[in-house]
Amino acid sequence: MGATWLKPDFGRRRDKAACREMIRGGSRSFFFASLLLPPPLRDPAYAIYAFCRLSDDTVDDCEVTGLAPVESLYERLDLAYAGRPLDTPADRAFAETVDLYGIPRALPAALLEGMAWDCQDKRYETLEDLHDYAARVAGTVGAMMSLLLGARDPVVVARACDLGVAMQLTNICRDVGEDARRGRIYLPRAWMRGVGLDPECWLADPKPGPALASIVKRLLAEADRLYDRAATGIAGLPSGCRPAIHAARLFYREIGYDVLRAGGDSVTRRAVVPGDRKAALVASALAAAARRTEVDPSPPLVCNRFLVDAARNAPEPKLEPGPLGRAMRRIDNRVGWTVELFLELEQRERAAQMAAAARG
């Protein structure tokens, strides 16, 4: 007897709106890229990212509070998977998403493990150590998104995890100064000592310089390697989903390029990708999505193997694929609107900044 499919009628309207606004305010690059997703998939994607954002915000003060916030997140995760989520929009939407799309608990649980490492002030000596961290806090998101988009081939999931790790390495390079002001270093400490920087001494007085820039450039080169490999995996996604994921890849990669244009200085400045630049990158994303590409069959990074295995053993989704597939093909008419929205949002932000400066 065949599966009993459910219609893709996702979530409560208020919950969806709350998750959407959480992402719009907290992860603009992902929000912009998400506008290229087929409409039925946007709100479930927001639900996943909203839970990740909520988790990240919960552990922000764990240097003071210890592991208690992470323990509370594990409890919330258990409730979500038991079908009894906490009475918040993010929890309700996340519980529904993981149930409908067959996302195994091992994936968000690994995300929380990475956040526990933050609370424990875990140190990363080598690139492989940093890969382990990035796999948990970002490779997990790649695996969950792959399942959400209906791609369960282990090679495609491995490339999605590559993309997550690459994005996290970019985030680390962008946030060197911000992390240092919070008493944290995510750059490989062995690399720092290799260029004459004592990690603890530098942390006491974080400043940019040629030595630090060489490490940032080296880490961004590793991110670039993974972005290139991940790009091939996007070809394994449903065609209507490819432009959005290529856009996310290009947006995050551009953050790294902005760091490089500043000489590798992410201590005194924070790299950004303005809305008009994002709009220009949409054309590149569409071109990349249209190209025929063979998925790179390389095995997953060692750090990502357990994520690929978890996705391979994921339960079947409960959603009916037919209507979703048809919606995925209706993308061309959205592209011009999306570009216009990027530009409008950028103009609004600039106007708000000017008004705030005038009031100050």
UniProtKB/TrEMBL annotation:
<dbReference type="Pfam" id="PF00494">
    <property type="entry name" value="SQS_PSY"/>
</dbReference>
<dbReference type="InterPro" id="IPR044843">
    <property type="entry name" value="Trans_IPPS_bact-type"/>
</dbReference>
<dbReference type="InterPro" id="IPR002060">
    <property type="entry name" value="Squ/phyt_synthse"/>
</dbReference>
<protein>
    <submittedName>
        <fullName>Phytoene synthase</fullName>
    </submittedName>
</protein>
<dbReference type="GO" id="GO:0016117">
    <property type="term" value="P:carotenoid biosynthetic process"/>
</dbReference>
<dbReference type="InterPro" id="IPR008949">
    <property type="entry name" value="Isoprenoid_synthase_dom_sf"/>
</dbReference>
<dbReference type="InterPro" id="IPR019845">
    <property type="entry name" value="Squalene/phytoene_synthase_CS"/>
</dbReference>
<dbReference type="GO" id="GO:0004311">
    <property type="term" value="F:geranylgeranyl diphosphate synthase activity"/>
</dbReference>
<keyword id="KW-0808">Transferase</keyword>
<keyword id="KW-0125">Carotenoid biosynthesis</keyword>
<dbReference type="GO" id="GO:0051996">
    <property type="term" value="F:squalene synthase [NAD(P)H] activity"/>
</dbReference>
<comment type="similarity">
    <text>Belongs to the phytoene/squalene synthase family.</text>
</comment>
<comment type="pathway">
    <text>Carotenoid biosynthesis; phytoene biosynthesis.</text>
</comment>
<dbReference type="InterPro" id="IPR033904">
    <property type="entry name" value="Trans_IPPS_HH"/>
</dbReference>
